[in-house]
Amino acid sequence: MRCIICKEIKEQEEFNEEHVFPDSIGGTLTQYNVCIICNSRLGHDVDTHLVNHFLVKIKRMIYRIPGKSGEIPNIFKKGYLKGDMEQEMRLEFDSVGNSKGVYMQPEKQFNVLADGSGNLHYRVDLKDKARLPGMVNKTLKRNGFPVMESAEILRRAVETREPAPEMIIEASADLIEYKRAILKIAYELSHYWIGENYFNDPNGEIIRKILIAKNFTDAKINKIGSINEGISLDLYKRLKQGGDFHMAVLIKDGNKIYCEIQIFDCMEGTIIVSNNAERYPDFVNRFISINPVTGEKLESTLTDAFKRLAGERV
Questions:
Q1: What is the pLDDT at residue 216?
Q2: What is the C-alpha separation between 244 and 45, in angstroms, rounded?
Q3: Which residues pair with residue 268 across a beta bridge?
Q4: How, if at all, do strands 18-19 and 84-93 pair?
Q5: Phi and psi at residue 189, in whole multiples of 5°?
Q6: Facing residues of 101 across strands?
Q7: Pairing mode of beta strands 256-263, 267-274
């Protein structure tokens, strides 16, 4: 059996399940033509840039899709109180994505005065009230001051409330590396739908080399297609029938075969997977959509997909 990534012939037990769309974004289409070594490297070096892209993490958080660790992304894991950028805060969630409320990180101000005395001020979340004496005494002891009784520390504490705290978060988004993960989806779908004949396709070989290259640039993609944030292919978006699903089509146009891919409603790509469609006389335009929450797949010819859209029985 030959791996479609490294092209080495290996024993069957050296292959395992490969998710065409990463399982950490709800992908459920799998195949077994990627060896274990390549599968691991693709996950670590390629898929991760799509799975952990800021726009995708928002979607995973909304739909409560966990990653390999079992955790649901939290884009509000670190932020700052509006009006006080020194006050760090976060929004907390339980293991299944239910909100547990806001948590304010402890904030400390300590000054040694000219007369040798000290001025210590702590601001802590109410959840940390029981920990406050320990925090105060640790700071006092570290700076050579006598510790205080816990009861006295709590007596001096004053409770205040932020009625509707607003959080400011710092966000950054990769503009390059995630595109290789979408190329990977196009490449694996081409093998899935075209079959073994795709092994020697010149465009397929270009894509394969991009997937295994150490360095990646936009220029490498521009030769074979385009990948962008946002969705502009409204016709294909309608095929998802209103769902915020993943979708792909493989479509022949003249002597070219294109792969159109949409990830949720935040990314899309158009890749020329072949300039030699005549090599595949039995090829039929294909369609697939995947519900990232339920994992349900809908796979058919593209013709049948349009018939469903028109309300015809397929």
A1: 85
A2: 26
A3: 228, 262
A4: unpaired
A5: -65, -35
A6: 92
A7: antiparallel
Are 10 and 33 contacting, i.e. CB atoms less than 8 angstroms apart?
A: no
Of 111, 120, 123, 134, the residue nearest 86 (C-alpha): 123
Per-residue pLDDT reduced to its tens digit, 170-229: 999 888 999 999 999 999 999 999 999 999 999 999 999 999 998 888 877 887 888 887
CA 15 to chain centre: 25
Residues paired with residue 269 on neighbouring β-strands, in sequence order: 227, 261
The whole-number average pLDDT for the span 232-246 is 73
> Is residue 64 a contact partner of residue 26, using CB atoms and an 8 Å limit?
no
Q: What is the 3-state secondary structure (H, E, C) of 12-40?
A: HHHECCEECCCHHHCCCCEECCCEHHHHH
Burial of 238 (0-12, 13-18, 19+ CB in 10 A): exposed
pTM score of the predicted model: 0.89
Q: Is the pLDDT of residue 237 over 80?
A: no
CB-based contacts of 207, cutoff 8 Å, min separation 6? 183, 186, 187, 224, 271, 273
Q: Which two tokens stand for residue 8?
A: 């080495």
Q: Percentage helix, strand, coil, to 5, in the chain? A: 35, 25, 40
Backbone angles phi, psi at 293, to 5 degrees: -90, -50
Give the Cα separation of 169 and 158 in Å (integer).
Answer: 28
User: What backbone torsions phi and psi does residue 295 show, to the nearest 5 degrees?
Assistant: 80, 0
Q: Average pLDDT for residues 141-154, to the nearest whole number?
A: 94
Asked if 119 contacts 111 with a C-beta cutoff of 8 angstroms, the reply is yes
Two tokens, residue 28: 């459920």
Residue 91 β-bridge partners = 102
Position of tokens 């109180």?
Answer: 81
Mean pLDDT of 51-70: 95
The answer to whether the CB of 112 falls within 8 A of the CB of 139 is no
Q: Residue 50's CB: how many other CB atoms inside 10 A?
A: 24
Q: How far apart are CA 220 and CA 207, in angstroms?
A: 9
Residues comprising the chain, all counted: 314
